[in-house]
Amino acid sequence: MKRKQVAHLLERYRVTDGAKFRLKRHDPDDTGGGIVDRKEAEALLADGVTRLSALQELLYPHASWALLCIFQAMDAAGKDGTIKHVMSGVNPQGVEVTSFKVPGPEELAHDFLWRISRKLPERGRIGIFNRSHYEEVLVVRVHKELLKAQRLPEDLDGRRIWEHRLADIGAFERYLTRQGTLVLKFFLNVSPAEQKKRFIERLDDPGKNWKFSASDISERTHWESYMHAYEEAIRATAAPHAPWFVVPANNKWFARLVVVEAMVAALESLHLKPMEMQAPDRIRLEEARHRLLEEGTTA
Ligand code: AMP
Ligand code: MG
């Protein structure tokens, strides 16, 4: 019963019409209006992980559809933990996780979608992007000096660059979906106060120190600019074929549940059936069985 309610909940977070989107209306503390408590959410997450694994087993042999899940968020919003938990039941051979960092010289020598295209999931696979092409309209938009390293021709470096990039991203995602890649985009929405709490935990716990980077503190001071950039990105690129999920992320257990439910719902919408052999192939299987059994009597 709860599962149905949770599936219904997804509607609160799924954004398919950018024009109406306002980030302010999304509360990072929301837990579905209290529909589940932490214990129930953890049980539902475990169930979701099992269902995701079963769906991946169906996706793989068809080698037709692919699923691309994009994760974007401020630091310490829980991208890594969410990916780890949600994908924990899935056969590693069917999934590839890619973390996009500051682009290096070879990447900067190409257009910004070059490195993205190279990591797209093959048919039958799930691709997880920990950061993505959206960094080009987020961190690069907040820190415009980063554009210099991209060495764009001067004429193309104008005031409408963000609008153009967002349009190009929209067209790219439209193209991918027309090629059979489902595109889901997750914004893990954490509050500045919760981020501060998590940073302090990272500083206090030697086991978590490595997660902290000096730039994390300075990035916090640009919070408003980042939120503006996120809002603009979601407004420009949310579409029924490539929805955004604005996931309340102050409670990790709730964020993880929303993410797994969104992935399960997307794969269920494909109505994949177990692969059935067509007649000529079945005959070949019968022949193979026959040969193996014969081999058993002579060997
Ligand atoms: P992390 O994910 O915490 O390991 O950090 C990766 C860093 O790379 C983040 O600060 C991102 O903003 C940065 N990054 C990722 N993609 C780009 C990009 N296209 N341009 C500039 N910085 C980027
Ligand atoms: Mg970081």
Description of the molecule:
The protein is an alpha/beta fold and 299 residues long. Helix content is 49%, strand content 11%. The protein contains twelve helices and six strands. It has a six-stranded mixed sheet with strand order 1-6-5-2-4-3, sandwiched between helices. Helix 1 (2-13) packs across helix 11. The longest helix is centred in the N-terminal third of the chain and has 25 residues, at 38-62. The protein starts with a helix and ends with a helix. Residues 75, 99-103, 131, 135-136, 139-140, 146 line the site of adenosine monophosphate.
Summarize the entry for a quick read.
The chain is α/β, with parallel strands linked by helices.
Task: Supply database-style keywords.
299 residues; globular; alpha/beta; 12 helices; binds adenosine monophosphate; binds magnesium ion; Rossmann fold; 6 strands; 49% helix; 6-stranded mixed β-sheet
Which ligands, by name, code or SMILES, are bound? adenosine monophosphate, magnesium ion
Please write the string of helix (H) and strand (E) elements.
HEHEHEHHEHHEHHHEHH
Rounded to an integer, what's the Rg over CA atoms? 22 Å
Residue-averaged pLDDT: 95
Shape summary: globular
Helix/sheet category: alpha/beta
- Which CATH class applies here? Alpha Beta
| Helical coverage, percent range | 40-55%
Percentage of residues in DSSP E strands: 5-15%
Spatial gap, N to C terminus: 56 Å
The CATH superfamily appears as: P-loop containing nucleotide triphosphate hydrolases
Overall number of domains: 1
Shape-level CATH architecture: 3-Layer(aba) Sandwich
Number of helices: 12
Low-confidence stretches: none
Largest sheet: 6 strands, mixed
Number of strands: 6
CATH topology: Rossmann fold
Strand order of the largest sheet: 1-6-5-2-4-3
